[in-house]
Amino acid sequence: MTSEATSFSPDLAFALELADLADSISLPRFRSADLRIDTKPDRSYVTDADLAVERALREQIEAQRPGDGFFGEESGRAEGGERRWILDPIDGTSNFLRGVPNWATLIALEVSGVPTIGVVSAPAFGMRWYAELGSGAWRLDQGAAPRQMRVSGVQDLEHASLSFQSIEQWRLAGYLDSLLELEKQTWRDRAYGDMWSYMLLAEGLIDIVAEFDVKPYDLAALAPIVREAGGRFSDIDGNDTVWGGSSLASNGLVHEASLKVIHSVR
Predict the structure, then answer these.
(1) Closest CA to 69 of 83, 89, 53, 54
(2) How many alpha carbons fall within 13 Å on the CB side of residue 129?
(3) By C-alpha distance, which of 104, 100, 101 is closest to 87?
(4) Domains of the chain, CATH where assigned
(5) β-sheet bridge partners, residue 70
(6) pLDDT in tens, the chain (266 residues)
């Protein structure tokens, strides 16, 4: 599903090639009768598709970018220089194993601690989103030309649409009262879940996404897309990082107001 556009940097072109490879492995395993599902030590699920995608992409990265570091959900870290590829082979494994199409491969390139490239490939949706710092954020649908994305212009919480991802996340983090207060002050709340919430934000269809208990490989590919679409991406304390264990993404216009509400009941 790689775009026909010719203005890609070598790194973004490579990331999109990795996404093509990931899709060729994951999509045939989606809803397959013989999908193998195991439980990891943290009691989260992993499928044979997760493992196969990460193994194939890591092999390509090590072959084509041998000086770069690597951080994958399933196989851990390999340190390199200032550049590091961060990978979630299947974001939304629980959806994948249940046959729900809201899942994707997340591919990011981090340079000197900053995610500079993000690719989110969701083959069950027939969609892909990607960005590189300074080049805008783009959505690519199967068989269509890429189109540039932009966050919404909503300026007030009372008109904002919120995706809170998971009540359990907020409860376990001790922020349930914050969620209830934020919900009270926004126009609409839903839990679209996983990477899709952030892509809806980048497309200007919702205005706030926040969650807890997240790792860098859950977020690194999402941050450049949100930021290049004109939004803001931080942790729940407002720090512009994907390493804080939480996230707050917005159209930028309601970011500070969201932070204020979240921390007003702490």
Answers:
(1) 83
(2) 28
(3) 104
(4) 10-148 (3.30.540.10), 157-264 (3.40.190.80)
(5) 78, 85
(6) 654 444 789 999 999 999 999 999 999 989 887 778 777 566 576 788 889 999 999 999 999 999 999 998 777 677 777 999 999 999 998 888 889 999 999 999 999 999 999 999 999 999 999 999 999 999 999 889 999 999 999 999 999 999 999 999 999 999 999 999 999 999 999 999 899 999 999 999 999 999 999 999 999 999 999 999 999 999 999 999 999 999 999 999 999 999 999 999 87
